[in-house]
Design goal:
single chain, about 450 residues, alpha+beta, Amidase signature (AS) enzymes, 14 helices, 17 strands, about 35% helix
């Protein structure tokens, strides 16, 4: 519609700013709304489009940024009190790429402090709230990104994923979240948490929207030493391809050890949907999965403690208690344990990669329950009280160890009306395959046409 000049980017951005104004008092999705800047850039986009200078599918589209992406001249708080006045003098590479594609940055989004948490319950900026039930968490750490997209405050957002921080909130808020292959998207100008685990990616209402954003932000960057030079492809080109004959592995151990029965039932229905599309879903066993929490926890907390070593030493009183305790825990990890975890990671990755010699996709639930209440610290799962913070990331962290691309998408609701999602994993740099499979599933699902009540 923008390309055909049926609507104006000025009006499109204005309508989203109005939506933010009407709903953010309930959701707390934004740390900073860029009203003036976004309206100015929308006016420029309108001039370009009217002049026939069409930049592509993101031209004039309002996008939000998790507040750990550097934005030149605009504060980047990393969800913390320590960085509340930090104003970068350059943009993150992906922010420049979005601007080059014509996207309009509409604001900086709420997050768990330092991206080190799974609830987005922030002691400095308040909790991000779930649009499906504002008394429930969004998940973290990209909570504001998920709630803003789900509630229609922006048309897409960027998050980051170190232990599940794109997929967890996407699952709990009922949207699509992609953790690309490690190195696929530049992290230059993205405040780090764990150098060997961090990934950045898009969060959207639909699979196709997600692919469009990943098209814009992917690519090698000489400023990121972990950036891959692997060949790029158009992630939307095969999105409508028939998936008949696709082989899907469905691990039964670990992912179903601690999980709500409603999620189990919805996963069974999702498997049946794939069968109706011509896919073959096979249950498999992956015993080594039971070691993934120890592997990822040791690596993540040790690297995070190194990144924040000066903050721990000189500004610990400014850090929220939950994040501070985890950073202090990471500081106490021995070098021997860190090396052992990296060695175990290599073995685990080899075993997972071997699975793809016989299968095209791995399928698993994203989160073990629907979104828990904000004020609760534990949730009952099949009669047992489970701590919420570790439970949220239990099923997502294995995919961060491998660095393999993984997409989360909705598959239904709990009896309380809260979203439930599954995650699909493919071999390295096979994001196009994930988008194809996810899109075919989405087409037979009614979920994407459903909106939160707010």
């Amino acid at each position: 519609m923008l390309k055909r000049k049926e609507i104006s980017p000025v009006n499109l951005v204005a309508s989203h700013l109005l939506r933010i104004q009407e709903t953010d008092g309930h959701l707390n999705s934004f740390i900073k709304v860029l009203s003036d800047t976004s309206q100015k850039n929308a006016a420029q986009a309108e001039k370009e489009i009217l002049a026939g200078e069409w930049k592509g599918k993101l031209h004039g589209i309002p996008i939000g940024l998790k507040d750990l992406y550097y934005t030149k001249g605009i504060p980047t708080t990393v969800g913390s009190k320590i960085y509340k006045d930090f104003i970068p003098n350059f943009n993150a590479t992906v922010v420049d790429k979005l601007s080059e594609a014509g996207a309009i940055i509409i604001g900086k989004l709420q997050m768990h402090e330092f991206a080190l948490g799974t609830t987005s319950h922030n002691p400095h900026y308040g909790p991000a709230r779930n649009p499906w039930n504002t008394e429930c968490i969004t998940g973290g750490s990209s909570g504001g990104s998920a709630s803003s997209v789900s509630a229609g405050q922006c048309m897409g957002a960027l998050g980051s994923d170190t232990g599940g921080s794109i997929r967890i909130p996407s699952a709990l808020c009922g949207i699509v979240g992609m953790k690309p292959t490690f190195g696929r998207v530049s992290r230059h100008g993205v405040f780090p948490l764990s150098s060997s685990l961090d990934t950045v990616g898009p969060m959207t209402r639909t699979v196709e929207d997600n692919a469009i954003i990943l098209n814009a932000i992917s690519g090698h960057d000489i400023n990121d030493s972990f950036s891959s030079e692997h060949r790029l492809s158009d992630y939307t080109s095969d999105i409508e391809k028939d998936i008949s004959g696709i082989k899907i592995a469905h691990p039964q151990t670990y992912f179903y050890d601690v999980i709500d029965e409603e999620v189990v039932c919805l996963m069974k229905k999702a498997s049946e949907h794939f069968a109706s599309l011509g896919g073959k879903v096979e249950p498999i066993e992956v015993p080594i999965l039971e070691h993934t929490l120890a592997i990822s926890g040791t690596i993540l907390l040790t690297e995070a403690a190194e990144i924040h070593s000066e903050n721990i030493r000189t500004k610990a009183e400014l850090i929220g208690n939950d994040v501070k305790s985890r950073l202090q825990q990471g500081s106490l990890t021995s070098g021997v344990d860190y090396v052992k975890s990296q060695r175990a990671r290599t073995i685990y990755n080899q075993k997972i990669n071997n699975l793809f010699e016989n299968y095209d996709i791995l399928i698993a639930p994203t989160v073990a329950t629907g979104a828990p209440p904000i004020n609760d610290t534990s949730v009952e799962v099949n009669g047992v009280q489970e701590l919420i913070a570790p439970l949220m990331a239990r099923l997502t962290r294995p995919q961060n160890i491998t660095g393999l691309p993984t997409i989360s998408l909705p598959i239904g609701f709990t009896s309380k009306g809260l979203p439930v999602s599954m995650q699909l994993t493919a071999p390295a740099f096979q994001e196009a395959r994930l988008y194809n499979v996810a899109n075919q599933y989405e087409k037979i699902s009614v979920f994407k046409n459903m909106l939160p009540p707010i």
